[in-house]
Structure formats: structure tokens, C-alpha cells
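Lecture notes, unit on protein representations.

Consider one protein chain, 307 amino acids long.
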Amino acid sequence: MLKKRHQVVIVFAVLTTLISGCDSTKDKYKKFTEALTGYTTALDDLLQASAPIAIEATSEQLIQQIQTPEGSTSSQQNIIQQNTKNYEDSSKLDKERLQIISDLRSHIHFLNKYFQLLRNLASSDAPEETKNQTQEVFTSLEGLGNKLVGEPKFPKDKFAILQNAVPSLTGVIVSSKINSALKEELEKRKEPIQHQLLLQQALLTAITDDIKADLEDIEQLREGRLVAREYGTGKIANPEDWISKRRKILNLQTKIVELNETSEIAKDFRMVFEDFVKGDFNSKRLDNITERMNNLTKVIQTVVPAE
């Protein structure tokens, strides 16, 4: 009788350990998806803020390039045609950049939705419906990824370098700490999700490079147009206003350096996912990534000086 009682106690202890292990995984994934929401929100804000910077830069370039029609009628027509071509070419580039930013924002939205569904898989007792939803969302995510790769502004070289440099998850065994439904999903899609995260990292690096180049153009062109030109006349109509404009414009240089953080943040986020697949998850690390992205977004939102 005593032996049977000991057996019951042992079985109960094992069950308790298993249940607490499942609860631990659920809690970890809940924290993961909550932190992911914060990260994707901050990333979306960053992308929203980058679009006006691109338009500001090309607008400054267009003002610099514009020519006043002079001379004979034919000369005037040639100048008008050149002005029109410059404008159309710049607008085309702007639209391509805005399109890829818009598609990347959609890509991030579906990635967020996919991870939310993974949380449901980790906690659901009847995951069949969730499995179907996960398949649908991943199909949309992958489709958007393919569309991004095919767009003119996609950084194919940066993407190829990352793919060659980052170890694939192909040979990685999903942690046994993860419950069966979630483990099955991660086994099936750990490599494709890593692929999508690498795609985002390459794009964010390229977009950041564009933003830095835009800010350098804005600084140079706006300083000449709003500050140096008036100073060159030897007469400043409103000294306080002139000083304020000069300060805002020259301050752009200090902001450009901070943008180097973007690709590191994207890389760290990808590594958090890779570590989770292996059973090593640190929610504080992901919170730190989100905080860094939020800080960077605040920088981006204040870099374009108002005239």
C-alpha cells in the first residue's frame, strides 16, 4: 500500500512539472508576443517618419535644379522640358520608395499577426482552427516578402550578404520545452520566418542608408538656400530667425550618426527569435530592443527642420 502511495506521489510530481513547464512556455511566449507588438509598433512609426524625409530631400534637389526659361522660344521650350523631366524622374523615385515602405509596413503587420497566432498555438487545447489561420497569415507574409524582393528599390546585394553570413536554422532542433502544436509549427517554418526576418533586416539597413543620404542632402541644400544665401547679401532681415534656422539645419549631422542603430536593432530582434526556437528566451532583451527602436523613432520624427 505504501509503495502504491509513493507511485501516486511520483506521478503527481511529474504531472505538476510538465504542467508548470507548459505554463512557463505559455508565459514566455505571451511576453514574447507582447514585446513583439511594442517592437512592430515602434518600427511602423519609424517607417512612417522616414517617408516625409525622402520627399523633403527630393523637393530640395528639385528647387536646386530648376531653371528659369530664358532666351529664344526654342531655348525656353527645352528648359521647360528639362524641368518637367527632372520633376517626373524625382517623383518616380519618391513613389518607388514610398511603395516599398508601404509594403514593408504591411509585411511587419503580418509578421506581428503570425506571432500572435503562435501564442494561441502555445496555449490552445484545440489548435486546428489556429493552425489554419496560421497557414493563411504566413502565406500572406511570404507573398508580401516575394513582392518586396521583386521591387526596384529592394537591396538584393545586402540581402544576399546577410543570407550567406547568418547560420541557417535548418539543422536546429526546436526546443523540447515548447508544446507539441507550437513545436510542430516552428519545425515547419523556422527557416522561412528567419528568411523573412533577414529580408526585413536588409530592407531596414537600406532604408536607413537612404535616410542618412537624404538628411545630408537636406542639410547641404537647405543651408545654402535658407542660411548662406541670405548671409551672402550682407543683410539679415531677422537675426533670431536666421540663427534658429541655422541651428536646426546644422543639428541634422548629430542625428545622422544615431541612425546606424537601426540595422543592429533588426539583427538583435532576429536573434531573439532564433534563440527562442532553441529554447533560450529573454524577455528583458526584447524589451530593450523595443526601447531602442522607440528612441530611434523619436530621433527620426524630429530631424526634418520646419522652415
